[in-house]
Amino acid sequence: MNLTLKVWRQKNAKAKGALETYKLNDVSEHSSFLEMLDMLNEQLINEGNEPVAFDHDCREGICGMCSLYINGEAHGPDRAVTTCQLHMRMFKDGDTIYIEPWRAKALPVIKDLIVDRSALERIQHAGGYISVNTSGNTQDANAIPIRKSDADKAMDAASCIGCGACVATCKNSSAMLFVAAKVSQFSYLPQGQVERKERVLNMVHQMDKEGFGNCTNTGACEVECPKGISLEFIARMNREYFGASIVAEN
Amino acid sequence: MSKLDSKIPEGPLKDKWTNYKDHIDVVNPANKRNIDVIVVGTGLAGGSAAASLAEMGYNVKAFCYQDSPRRAHSIAAQGGINAAKNYQNDGDSVYRLFYDTVKGGDYRAREANVYRLAEVSANIIDQCVAQGVPFARDYGGLLDNRSFGGVLVSRTFYAKGQTGQQLLLGAYSAMNRQIAKGKIAMHNRHEMLDLVIVDGKARGIIARNMITGEIERHSAHAVVIASGGYGNVFYLSTNAMGSNASAAWKIHKKGAYFANACYTQIHPTCIPRSGEHQSKLTLMSESLRNDGRIWVPKKLEDVKAIREKKIKPVQIAEQDRDYYLERRYPAYGNLVPRDVASRAAKERCDAGYGVNATGEAVFLDFATAIERYGKEKAMVSGIENPSKEKITELGEAVIEAKYGNLFQMYEKIVNENPYKTPMMIYPAVHYAMGGIWVDYNLMTTIPGCYAAGEANFSDHGANRLGASALMQGLADGYFVLPYTIGAYLAKEIRTGKIPTNTPEFDAAEKGVREQLEKLINNKGKKSVDYFHKKLGKVMWDNVGMSRNAAGLKKAMDEIAQIREEFWKDVFVPGEMNELNPELEKATRVADFLEFGEFFAVDALHRNESCGGHFREESVEMDGEQEGEAKRDDVNFRYVAAWEYTGNPREAILHKEELTFNDIELKQRSYK
């Protein structure tokens, strides 16, 4: 298929960016979206131009490195996929495709389609862990049975890949789904109880400090999340937060 | 020829690690605060090592090329992690895990290391549960297990099809706790470009900040390389796009011996290539072979019709199908080890029976399992005389519960429904058993430089069993290295801070800058990918699943030629002092172009077939095993550790003889 691409080009964080137009021909419908961008870059390099910078790594939908706002949708038109899993059969010959980086104040552009997600890192530093040392003599893994339904819920929450699609797609640029996933995972597990209150307070505090917006229950994040993380976890985090705010010792 | 000292402790196998650990030097907490350790790579091995070392009190500087440690490629591991817990009461034990691992590795691993791995395996599960890793559980709330290839017990712990992700997020969370405390200085989007050696000891690295392009000097009292495997030398593999051999190759060039490069795992069940645009290959978990039957048509005219899409695979009658694994290996059938399954697929495809347009695909068919599960389910549910449709519906639901995410992944990529038509699969490069040579302490031949996880050679011999990579990565990082590194660092307590304004750092930085400048200023005509693809093709055709002397020699010459052409004609756009993905790729491919030739040297020298290394010259000529791989224990029962001399082709071989005191050497048979 032959395509017209409108790609966001921006030299660096300080430069002013713009959409550039490229023609790309003979794209196979079996190639992935990122393989299509590889083709574009090969074409640009062969013409002596600078290729488009974009984040990617595992190319099997799990590392969370790839991003891209494609025709106004995080990770493009397909559902429950990352951009690397999006295939060109979702598009038609002659299509014009708009490709932009994540847009959020807390996730500034570094270059072209690459954004800085270190704000998400700092939220994890604020409490995304259980304080246990590596010792080799923690208690036996089966010492505390965990209800299967709780373990399964924890797993559903834990499957977040930290790509930032929820932030990018939210009209408020809220990171609530991302934070709620980690808070919820630990809240379902007995090992997470000791620090449960401090964790939610600290992570939410850091989230606010980073400049992410608030949640107004639009639900766009859930729709665009490549791992289908449920909005229910945001509700759960809100309960955790209110509970912790009322009874917190400090 | 220097003698390699593996520093295996004396005493009976069972007591080695315990006794050694009891007597190892310990650094007191006040002194740990004055000692710096660099960790390169933040996958399961690097992440767990960084977190543990920081908890112990060392100052850790960790590096990864991704924008977060959470994205290292350990995250893509699907199936599970082995541990000798014996929760299923099926007779598992430390010894049995040890035995399975040595046998699965075709008797080319070091006994003492493997035994230690099996010993600490149970601790890993305890540790991960304590960290909040949501392993699968049964209705009683206890941990669930599944089976994997090559073993007779259920010892694999899992978290859906995302075990690697959950374990990595566990290690990542442990790192985050230390980052918050300031005990780990995390350097994301940084790439190590050289090792700095001062007075014979590893004392730091030169790294490039991938956002600003700045070249940075980082010093430490010890350097841990946990940078993963080298599968991307084949261009197409199941590795991440950024996975590379550069850190390992750089330390090799600075004096670390590189061992057993030819032991590379080609995984039998990957989604086949669909065309020239292909950038990577996607694995389908080994667990699928529990229920899937592998076949190709018996008749070439059926193959042709399928390729031309004139008939559908389901239309081929049962008697016209060749279930070649069940035919050749009646005892193990579809569950033969990975190396055997891969070669068998290649044999059929080479004979012209490949079932897709490229001729490189076989079927993995779930129809039998769907029918079996459907009937079972109907009986359990009390449905009398169920219709064929009902059986299929019930059976598909069972398969979906077991493998749903894999089937969905397959459908997204291939655009075919694997419940209704068999999957197409083909082998792909997956895991590197070979790697940097290390002693029992995981120290390389450079004092103070360690290698952990896939980056080292130590535990899997010539073939790794499923669900053992995660086990080794975490064992090295959580439970081995944090102890063994003390033996070295205890002697460093009086050293003081390592300065970076020394001639050694100057020289290393100069070398790095010169290489980067050369690449940028080369202004050739061809892209980095052009050369990488070309290298990959030579590797796959001659150094792939089946190797012979003539092909290997040809590959060495061709790779040397491609390397020469690369330095003449590569075009790297952009500048050094900015974010420049092409420059990053160029440095990695430059190293692959040396490493690939060295790989072929190792494969050529090992004139035996063992595990993932198959030499056409070394096959059984008669009897029941005719045509199968033939190991040569008389001449090749050693680790081949190579010393760099300036030319990959002229590496000097050092042998570490392997002794097996607690296990009997046997030829593997799966007939």
List the defining traits of the structure above.
heterodimer; A: Ubiquitin-like (UB roll); Fumarate Reductase Iron-sulfur Protein, Chain B, domain 2; 2 domains; 8 helices; B: 671 residues; alpha+beta; FAD/NAD(P)-binding domain; Flavocytochrome C3, Chain A, domain 1; Methane Monooxygenase Hydroxylase, Chain G, domain 1; 3 domains; 5-stranded antiparallel sheet; globular
Order of secondary-structure elements of chain A? EEHEEEEEHHHHHHH
Fraction of residues in β-strands of chain B: 5-15%
> What's the alpha carbon Rg of chain B, rounded to whole Å?
25 Å
Strand order of the largest sheet of chain A: 2-1-5-3-4
Strand content of chain A: 5-15%
CATH class of the largest domain in chain A: Mainly Alpha
Q: Specify the overall morphology of chain A.
A: elongated
Largest interface: A-B, 81 and 79 residues
Helix content of chain A: 25-40%
Strand segment count of chain A: 7
| Termini gap of chain B | 42 Å
Output mean pLDDT of chain A: 96
Overview of the structural elements:
Chain A is of the alpha+beta class. Chain A folds into two domains: 3-100, Roll (Ubiquitin-like (UB roll)), CATH 3.10.20.30; 117-132 and 141-247, Alpha-helical ferredoxin (Fumarate Reductase Iron-sulfur Protein, Chain B, domain 2, Orthogonal Bundle). Chain A is built from eight helices and seven strands, in the order ββαβββββααααααα. In chain A, strand 6 and strand 7 (114-115) form a beta hairpin. The longest helix of chain A is centred in the C-terminal third of the chain and has 16 residues, at 232-247. Chain B is α+β, with helices and mostly antiparallel strands and 671 residues long. Chain B contains 18 helices and 19 strands. The longest helix of chain B is centred in the middle third of the chain and has 27 residues, at 388-414. Chains A and B meet through helix 1, helix 2 and helix 3 of A and helix 3, helix 5, helix 6, helix 12 and helix 13 of B.
